[in-house]
Each structure stands twice: as structure tokens, then as C-alpha cells.
């Protein structure tokens, strides 16, 4: 009820929300395959590879936070924690594993 | 900012290609030994450069609060995103699914073709200036 009233007083622009989510998911998809290239070339295996991906996404989230959201994520995201820091982390995982295995096979094997 | 993003992307791609190629050569020459430190550093640096470039060259966020969003629009006007006619109307031909028919100039090229919406604010300002200047055309 409280949140509903808050939304009635300060309405949210749906197209902006969609645009921001789209930008974040684009960045995530591009960087995820990039981290896969790095992890495969470094020859990481099992858990270190996934840890590498999580650290990488954290760094990218930090870059987005500083350069795109200008330190004020609540202006651009309804739920900054879920949409900026955690947004699309697991949807990028599949492209990460794809390029990870590809480059591991190409370079190391 | 787009120039900086492109420059970072370019440098990152060069470093990344070089690092991956070096790793490949190294693994061919010394199959058992791990990747040398300099290649690792180059690889991580190139990844960082590329992700910074991707973030910098991505489009700006738009504010989601209605008040800030509309304030930004009325401050900066909507101009600049598409093509505009001299009369202050925006072309909508970008998403026109029938553009391949070549009827943008109207049938037979005689009429004005598809028109967008009026920029009402600009028109109003123009009118006010006309009235202030004494109504002379």
C-alpha cells in the first residue's frame, strides 16, 4: 500500500525503465562473452572460472555505476540493487560459458 | 565521450588479440608450463579497457522519475534525435515499414509525403516572437 501511494505521487516512466534495462543487458551480454575469452585463454577450470566471471561483472557494475548512473542509481533504476548490480548476471552466464569453453579449446588444448 | 569509448575499445581489442595470440604461441612451444605473468597482465588489462570502452560507448540512462524525465525533455527539447524539416516537424521515416515503396515524396513525388508531429513549443515560441515584433511578417 505504501509503495503504491509512493508510485501515485512520483510516477515512473516505463519507457525509461525499459531503455535502462536494455542498456544494462546489452553491456552485460557483451562483457560476459569478453570475460569468457579471458577465462578460456587464462586456462581457468571449474570454480575459479565462475569466480572470475562474478568478479568481472562486479567491476563492470562498478563502471556502470560511476560512468552511466553518475553515482545516483536510484534516479535510473526502480530497485538499484537488483537492476544495476544484479541485473542480467545469470543471463550472461551462458554466453560466458560458451566463449570460455571455445577459447579454452582453441588456445590451450 | 563516444571518441574515448571507441579509442578504449580499439586499444583493448589490439591488446586482447595480441595476448590471445601470445598465449597460443606459448602453449604450442611450452605445452606444460603455465601462462607467463606478462601475458596474464596484458590480457586482464585488455579486458578492463574493453569493458570500460563498452560502458562508455553505451547510450546514456534516462531518468525514471516522471518529474525529472519531463523536466529534462523541456529543458533540452526533443530535437536532435531524428531528422527535422525546416517547419519544425520530425520525420518518422525511420520506422516506416513501407519505405521501400519510395513514396516518401508522396505519390508521383508531388505532395509532401509522411509528416511527423508538430513541435508545438517551438511553434508557440515562434508565434510569440512574431507577435512581439509587431505582427509584421
From TrEMBL, chain A:
Electron transport listed as a keyword: no
Key word Signal present: no
InterPro entries listed in its UniProt record: Emc6 (IPR008504), EMC6-like (IPR029008)
Transmembrane region(s): 50-69, 89-107
Keywords from the named record: Endoplasmic reticulum, Membrane, Transmembrane, Transmembrane helix
GO cellular component term of the entry, any: EMC complex
Membrane topology listed for this record: Multi-pass membrane protein
Localization in the cell: Endoplasmic reticulum membrane
GO BP, one annotated term: autophagosome assembly
Family, per entry: Belongs to the EMC6 family.
Protein name: ER membrane protein complex subunit 6
Automatic annotation (TrEMBL), chain B:
Keywords: Membrane, Transmembrane, Transmembrane helix
GO biological process, one term: protein folding in endoplasmic reticulum
Main location: membrane
Family matches, as Pfam families: MMgT
Top-level division of the source organism's lineage: Eukaryota
Database matches in InterPro entries: EMC_subunit, MMgT
Localization per record: Endomembrane system
Membrane topology label: Multi-pass membrane protein
Entry GO CC: EMC complex
Family: Belongs to the membrane magnesium transporter (TC 1.A.67) family.
Record PANTHER family: ER MEMBRANE PROTEIN COMPLEX SUBUNIT 5
Official protein name in the record: Magnesium transporter
Species this protein is from: Lophiotrema nucula
